[in-house]
Amino acid sequence: MAQARTDIGPPLYKDMLPPIIKENYGKWRYHEILKPGVLVHVSETGAKLYTVRAGSPRLISIYFIREICDLADKYCDGYLRFTSRHNIEFLLSDETKIDPLIADLNAMGVPVGGTGNSITNIVHTQGWVHCHTPATDASGIVKAVMDELFEYFTTMKLPAKLRIALACCLNMCGAVHCSDIAILGIHRTVPRIDHENLHKVCEIPTLTASCPTAAIRPNPKLKSIDIKAERCMYCGNCYTMCPSVHIIDPKNDAVSIWVGGKISNSRIGPRFSRLAIPFLPNNPPRWPEVVDAVKKLVEVWAANAQPGERMAEWIDRISWEKFFEITGLPFTDKHIDDFTLAQTTFRCTTQFKW
Ligand code: SF4
Ligand code: SF4
């Protein structure tokens, strides 16, 4: 029998595990945080694996990668990994090497932290650098926000962990729906159709099928499409399929802020985040309005939440109405969820049955 080819795609992750992880695979009993940015995992064999978590600036140069690889060679036999939040984790089996590694990282200007009751690096999408549908930038806002919240990365003084995410359009390839605070770029106008060129560059059936709310109908007379404005939620999915359906609108594109999202755990289902601020101006290069709003939300939550209470649980306890009162945010008509297709398009939990 012919052997299946297994050398296609990325290398098998097990080939890259440090020996201590291979030897204790499936035997880890517990882990704890020794200090901000430093974890220990303890195996039932007694073996201990130390993790030093450092924040990366997310967009990094080849020179920076070489420097951190040199540190990994020096302190942990070359073993490191990148987390989904752009942190770099050095995996050590020798406890005495932790402090010298942290000293070297700090000398490079790289902070160590992001564990426990902290704000770890912000997960974000591609923004103006790589994607074609963004309503705002990703890396630029994240840099400006994280500069302001830096002290919460290197300490663990918050009531609970706080996860921040950014997506630059509501197609949302970030974790905006399930983060304590989410920054979301929003388009606010119905796409403009270039009827003259549409049929030359786009497949109309594909374009029609791309709309999640069935707002797009073929227009055979024009060999183009029509968009039913009242069904459009400005997601930009159609623009992804067809460059003749223009969603980018510099005057109206903006930023919104959402709160209280959480991923599921073994006991409760996931929680979608809720709209807190419907509009903030798109104001590069430092987005001061967005930075101020996020900082204020962090500080009000930190001052009022009980130990262990994440943003969602704090809001549950004080009520949604009180949230607006305490934060001083205005409650507007935009906060009323009257999207008529919600019941047919929202799937809120993994327990949902069709
Ligand atoms: Fe592109 Fe939207 Fe993803 Fe941003 S969130 S990278 S605009 S698809
Ligand atoms: Fe449909 Fe989204 Fe395009 Fe509006 S922006 S027409 S909702 S795909």
Automatic annotation (TrEMBL):
GO terms for molecular function: 4 iron, 4 sulfur cluster binding; dissimilatory sulfite reductase (NADH) activity; electron transfer activity; heme binding; metal ion binding; sulfite reductase (ferredoxin) activity; sulfite reductase activity. The keyword Nucleotide-binding does not apply. Signal peptide: none annotated. Keywords: 4Fe-4S, Iron, Iron-sulfur, Metal-binding, Oxidoreductase. Its cofactor is siroheme; [4Fe-4S] cluster. The keyword Acyltransferase does not apply. It comes from the Bacteria. Transmembrane segments: none annotated. Residues 223-253 form the 4Fe-4S ferredoxin-type domain. GO terms for cellular component: sulfite reductase complex (NADPH). One of its GO terms (biological process) is sulfate assimilation. InterPro entries: 4Fe4S_Fe-S-bd, 4Fe4S_Fe_S_CS, DsrB, NiRdtase/SiRdtase_haem-b_fer, Nit/Sulf_reduc_fer-like_dom_sf, NO2/SO3_Rdtase_4Fe4S_dom, NO2/SO3_Rdtase_4Fe4S_prot, NO2/SO3_Rdtase_4Fe4S_sf. This is Dissimilatory sulfite reductase beta subunit. It comes from Desulforamulus putei DSM 12395.
